[in-house]
Specification:
Oligomer: single chain
Number of helices: 11
Radius of gyration: 20 Å
Number of strands: 6
Order of helices and strands: HHHHHEHEEEEHEHHHH
Structural class: alpha+beta
Distance between the termini: 47 Å
Shape: globular
Strand content: 5-15%
Length: about 270
């Protein structure tokens, strides 16, 4: 069964992706998946300038889908009533991941609620659960499960943990288009864009751990992303705009990614 610390360290964009990475990471090295899904910095900024939402960001494949495409795992979605759901959950195998969709009733007593309507929690055969947002855990009574159950069970199972994956990150970083596009002016949209970049660039830092120069530049970028995200979150909390230095900070991030592209190109040349 996953715990809260497992989820806190999972580099996922959605609740399901976080549960999945925490679960699969206990069975195989998930770092190799980090190079199989790439999105350019300019695309992320442009997407959120034109109305993209963090909770529904669809321009980056979810890693559970990537893993299934490579044959590493398989999944099953079951829409069923609460009694069938409990029977499925109690019959789960120890090495499988079981998630259940919850409804608004589940969040009674919480100060915060999920961003999406189709929110899932991780659950074991004893109805013990852990929730990614807000980060929490507990055990259902029969009655509490019935009240909070949202109508679906999602399960993942191992298929071929040794299956090969592809590296799309190297070429993605090296050939990405740095043509200046739109940048979000709304602090909430910019915060969401930076949130996506934080997760994806932290993944890339781990993926390039054996390429020192690229890893170092990605670390520098992640330090800047963390600082920018914190300042944007603070601005949102205080209800004020954050625009004084945002463009300069975004420019600094773009310059780092341009440096990364050059480093990769030079290493490709020297290794040719």
């Amino acid at each position: 069964m996953l715990n809260k610390s497992d989820l806190a360290n999972a580099l996922g964009l959605s609740c399901v992706e976080k549960y999945f990475l925490a679960w699969l990471g206990g069975r195989t090295d998930v770092t190799r998946l980090y190079g199989s899904a790439f999105v350019g910095i300019m695309q992320v900024l442009d997407d959120f300038a034109h109305g993209a939402l963090y909770q529904n960001y669809c321009y980056l494949p979810r890693l559970q889908d990537v893993a299934e495409d490579y044959g590493i795992v398989e999944h099953e979605y079951r829409s069923c009533d609460k009694d069938e759901a409990k029977a499925i959950i109690r019959a789960q195998a120890k090495n499988e991941l079981y998630l259940v969709r919850v409804n608004a009733e589940f969040f009674t007593g919480f100060r915060r609620t999920a961003w999406r309507e189709d929110h899932y929690i991780c659950i074991d055969e004893n109805l013990q659960w852990v929730n990614e947002y807000p980060l929490s855990e507990g055990v259902f009574t029969e009655e509490a499960f019935d009240r909070g159950y949202g109508g679906a069970v999602l399960l993942y199972a191992e298929k071929d943990l040794a299956a090969k994956t592809d590296d799309h990150a190297t070429s993605g970083l090296m050939h990405q288009d740095f043509t200046r596009k739109a940048i979000p002016h709304d602090s909430g949209a910019l915060e969401s864009a930076v949130g996506v970049l934080r997760v994806t660039r932290k993944r890339l830092e781990k993926f390039f751990c054996e390429t020192a120069a690229v890893e170092w530049l990605l670390h520098e970028e992640n330090v800047k992303l963390d600082k920018l995200y914190f300042n944007l979150r603070l601005a949102q909390t205080k209800g004020r705009a954050f625009s004084d230095t945002a463009n300069e900070e975004i420019d600094a991030l773009i310059q780092i990614e341009k440096q990364i592209a050059e480093v990769i190109k030079n290493e490709k040349k020297s290794g040719a």
